[in-house]
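Why do we bother with holo predictions? Because pocket geometry can differ from the apo form. Keep that in mind while you read this record for 2'-monophosphoadenosine-5'-diphosphate.
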Amino acid sequence: MQVYGLLGNPVGHSLSPRIHHAAYREFGMDACYATFEPEPSELGTAIEGARALGVRGLNVTIPFKQDAISFVELDELADRIGAVNTIDFGGDRPTGHNTDAVGARRALERHDVALDGARAVLVGAGGAGRAVAFALSDAGATVSIANRTEERAEELATAVPNATGHGLSALNDLLANANVLVNATSVGMEGDESPVPADALHRGLTVMDIVYQPLETRLLRDAAAADATTIDGAWMLLYQAVAAFERWTGQEAPVEVMNDVLRSELT
Ligand code: ATR
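The structure, written out:
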């Protein structure tokens, strides 16, 4: 049996096992996807142990995405982002990748959003924000990064080509000429709140949220009311899993089957 899994803490509510099992079922693969919660001090032992046991691939989530860097050979994108969410044991040494960035790009592509030459606004400069910032910039967009802690946005902007850093108070101005807006903060997950003023949203803007619980966030409701195009957080979650599956198996993922299962789990 092929074994895949997720390293994180906590991972009990993760939807990843269900998304990946949907793909294994579809292809009749003798494979399983398990969740693991190692002690932080044993992360390296866990990764080395997985390799020794013949595990094919691991996803990595909070709080290990940065720490995992020390135990794998990074590809160029994960190195620039400074975080790993996918480990591939297919080679001589475990390699580290970041499919959050690929997931963001593919989620936007799926909705026919043209990024080359686009003016993108990114809210958030944390771990998820970093991945999305590089994805947008690599695809040819200029990226205005707005973050509650402005210095964090400025620091990220120095690492990302064609990016500038701002505080949240700049959002109205930044959005006036923007084509794409991505929320990479956790705002909207707990309360019915949005990190973006509703009056800054407009027709001609595509708004993607990375929050997927709830699926219809306040931001996306405000965006729909302003006649903007909306892309919910399940799309990035889906496409990071799709990209991990494809890296591990070398096969094109059954995207629609994975999407159906994911959406059946979300409200
Ligand atoms: P993740 O890895 O999920 O991105 P993170 O690194 O903790 O998590 O980053 C969370 C992001 O959400 C940050 O951009 C954070 O802003 P700060 O850098 O100022 O902390 C943002 N965030 C969290 N709560 C917020 C709130 N109530 N209002 C605005 N931004 C918030």
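The radius of gyration is 18 Å.
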